[in-house]
Design goal:
alpha+beta, six-stranded antiparallel β-sheet
């Protein structure tokens, strides 16, 4: 559990720390381990959100999708802070395997280490540093030890500033940016400038932001733009035919990997130019020549891009790619709500989220996060779609609405005066999927917030991604509820009380498919005792569940008319063949006679039951049996009589309890026996929980699990 002390975020009542604490610590880390970029994240005091405080070596635009991230996000810095451990990613292949969403946005060869900035009691944030793709596949002991010690020292310093209530002053990012302007200043000497000017090919110097700091005459002639127009601007912003994300991507690839990159571009009407980019930690040198032998190529049509320091179009695309990757992981509606709160809200600076849906002509709150008083949100649940509220209007019109301040919102919707939610700015995003509205996403901001054009465009795009995820989640939840309703209807609602026998049962569905399957159990009172059955029909779908219901009903009927165990099994086998379902089933049926201390059992390809004796010993019952039900209509099912003394416990189960990939069945059965022996004195309900506990807590179960426990009363 992440321990965030009460003083994690420094108070604002004292003078800020004078020295650039974070920048100096980060610069020292990079220098000592020869990394070329990195960043320090700080954890918010009141929310599980990491925010980038300072970055070094690369423009902050490279990390735009991750400037603010939820602590539960699937990225290295969040893992490092949450789990308080070093995270090492050796290259692009490992990045694609472990962090596919990050790899989609930054598909370049580089190595990364992320570490927590934490003391023994408090997590303050995290750090990441990166190396070129040429870094060895393993982190060296020196690098590991130095980074760990440096993060520890930084945490101690942050703890001291917290104890003294000293806030951290904002610190600038660390970029080795050469001055923009004259060639002599850039190259160092007048003679060096003259030498470059004589070369027959073009040369440009770009800073880390991609802005031109120097260009010789040959470069200007080849590009077709005067040097004065190029200086201080990014190439793709100053030259229309270079305005393509593909070319900007090559610049990013060179800086991230610190490896030479190149591309070929068509200068209209028919001149092909070759660009070769040589990176360093301070920028790039670009060599421009004519491409002599270029096959027929096509380029995208130019689109205008604003110059300056505003985030580039590619950064916007990277943000959308990252968020899209997050939403593909959502399964149910609450997963969508949680991902929007953990991934999207921090990325855009929002502090709270509400996801609204529609049902029967009314607006309903599907989920919310970040509101101190949840009743404020719940008051909007059930509002008719004819009401004049911003959520209803966005849903009905399909047009997003952005409110910079509370005054702006209340001017258009006066009713909001009586229902304040404590926030100061809002974005209402209509969620349109498959051409129809599925809901509204509301992002709330604690402070007044301007929404520039670029941010509105990103939020609108993100709204479309949320809509698709929500549509899938709503459909999944409906299927999930239907499956669980069907499963609940087909299994016993409760076990009947029986004289001389105590019983307990558990059922766990598989976590794949529809969470429904063919495992079943039942307990049927009979004259002088009871009949018990447990079975498993192939499959995890509605067909298997329906057939399971038919078999359970048949077993009850055959038991009620007084058939012996071997007859019940044979009759059920013939019924399954007559149904023509082409599915097989395993089954174990037994007749209990507690008055005489015995049980008579018949088995059809089912795992053997366990018997816990009163002395604490566990025995695997080796029963005679026949083939699976549904294979051979003439099959016979011999019976075995087992002594059932008072205090004995019979454990009937399906194979999902003992079968899992990579685990030997005999070892699994032995483990089940040890758990049974160790907890056999517990009440049956608690014993059942112990026997299935490791599977109940598992994130993934490949098969259903049914368990039926029977104890002969003393």
């Amino acid at each position: 559990m992440v321990g965030v002390s009460d003083g994690q975020a420094p108070a604002a009542s004292r003078a800020p720390v004078g020295r650039p604490l974070l920048s100096l610590a980060l610069a020292a880390m990079l220098d000592e381990v020869h990394a070329h970029s990195g960043a320090v994240y700080l954890l918010w005091r009141d929310r599980p959100v990491l925010e980038m405080a300072v970055m070094a070596g690369l423009p902050r635009a490279f990390a735009a999708p991750w400037e603010r991230v939820g602590l539960s996000a699937a990225i290295p810095v969040a893992d490092a802070a949450r789990e308080r451990r070093l995270v090492w990613v050796s290259g692009e292949e490992e990045m694609a395997r472990r962090y596919p969403r990050l790899a989609v946005v930054l598909p370049y060869p580089f190595a990364l280490a992320a570490l927590p900035v934490a003391t023994d009691t408090t997590v303050f944030g995290a750090v990441f540093v990166t190396w070129p793709g040429s870094h060895p596949p393993e982190l060296s002991d020196h690098e590991r030890d130095h980074l760990t010690a440096a993060c520890r020292r930084l945490a101690v310093r942050l703890e001291r500033t917290t104890d003294m209530s000293l806030p951290l002053a904002p610190e600038p990012d660390l970029l080795g940016t050469p001055p923009v302007g004259g060639g002599a200043g850039t190259l160092g000497t007048v003679e060096a400038t003259r030498m470059v000017a004589r070369l027959p090919y073009g040369l440009c110097s770009l800073d880390l932001h991609g802005r031109v700091a120097f260009a010789n005459a040959a470069a200007a002639e080849l590009i077709g733009e005067p040097v004065s127009r190029l200086l201080g601007h990014q190439l793709w912003a100053a030259v229309p035919w270079l305005n393509d994300p593909v070319y900007e991507d090559r610049y990013r690839a060179a800086l991230m990997s610190q490896q030479v990159a190149s591309f070929v571009a068509l200068r209209p009407p028919g001149d092909w130019l070759s660009f070769r980019l040589y990176p360093s930690t301070t920028g790039l040198s670009v060599r421009i020549t004519r491409a002599r032998a270029v096959a027929q190529m096509a380029t995208a049509g130019p689109r205008p891009v604003a110059a300056g320091d505003t985030p580039s179009r590619l950064v916007t695309i990277s943000q959308v790619l990252s968020l899209a990757g997050a939403l593909t992981e959502a399964v149910g509606v609450q997963d969508v709500v949680q991902l929007v709160a953990d991934e999207i809200a921090p990325a855009v600076g929002a502090q709270a989220v509400v996801v609204l849906g529609t049902r029967a002509g009314r607006l309903h709150v599907l989920g919310h996060r970040g509101y101190p008083d949840p009743h404020v949100v719940e008051r909007f649940d059930g509002i008719p779609l004819t009401e004049q509220t911003p959520g209803v209007h966005a849903l009905n019109s399909g047009v997003p609405a952005f409110f910079d301040s509370r005054a702006q919102l209340e001017h258009l919707y006066p009713a909001r005066h009586s229902t304040p939610d404590g926030f100061a700015a809002w974005a209402y995003l209509p969620l349109i999927a498959s051409g129809r509205p599925v809901g509204t996403c509301v992002l709330a901001y604690a402070e007044p917030h301007a929404f520039p054009t670029e941010e509105r465009a990103v939020l609108t795009s993100v709204g479309g991604l949320i809509a698709l995820a929500l549509e899938r989640a709503l459909l999944y939840d409906v299927k999930h509820q239907l499956a669980h309703g069907l499963q609940a209807a087909l299994l016993p609602h409760s076990l009947p009380p029986l004289p001389g026998v105590a019983a307990a049962a558990r059922y766990l569905p598989a976590t794949r498919g529809m969470d429904i399957g063919g495992d079943f159990y039942d307990l049927v009172p009979t004259a002088g005792g009871a009949a018990a059955v447990i079975g498993d029909v192939q499959g995890h779908n509605v067909t298997a569940a329906g057939l399971m219901g038919q078999l359970r009903t048949a077993v009850r009927a055959y038991t009620t008319v007084g058939q012996a165990p071997e007859q019940v099994m044979a009759s059920t086998n013939r019924l399954l063949i007559d149904l023509g379902a082409e599915l097989f089933a395993s089954c174990l049926y037994l007749r209990l006679d507690p008055a005489h201390g015995r049980a008579v059992m018949a088995r059809a390809g089912h795992p053997p039951p366990l018997l816990l004796r009163p002395d604490g010993r566990v025995r695997v019952l080796d029963l005679a049996g026949g083939p699976l039900l549904g294979i051979d209509g003439s099959a016979v099912y011999p019976t075995t009589e087992v002594a059932l003394t008072p205090g004995s416990v019979l454990v009937l189960y399906t194979d999902g309890l003992i079968e899992s990939p990579g685990i030997d069945i005999e070892e699994a059965l032995a483990g089940l026996g040890r758990r049974l022996a160790g907890a056999g004195e517990l009440p049956l309900d608690r014993l059942a929980d112990v026997l299935v506990g490791h599977l109940a807590a598992a994130e993934e179960r490949l098969d259903d699990v049914a368990l039926l426990l029977l104890r002969a009363e003393r």
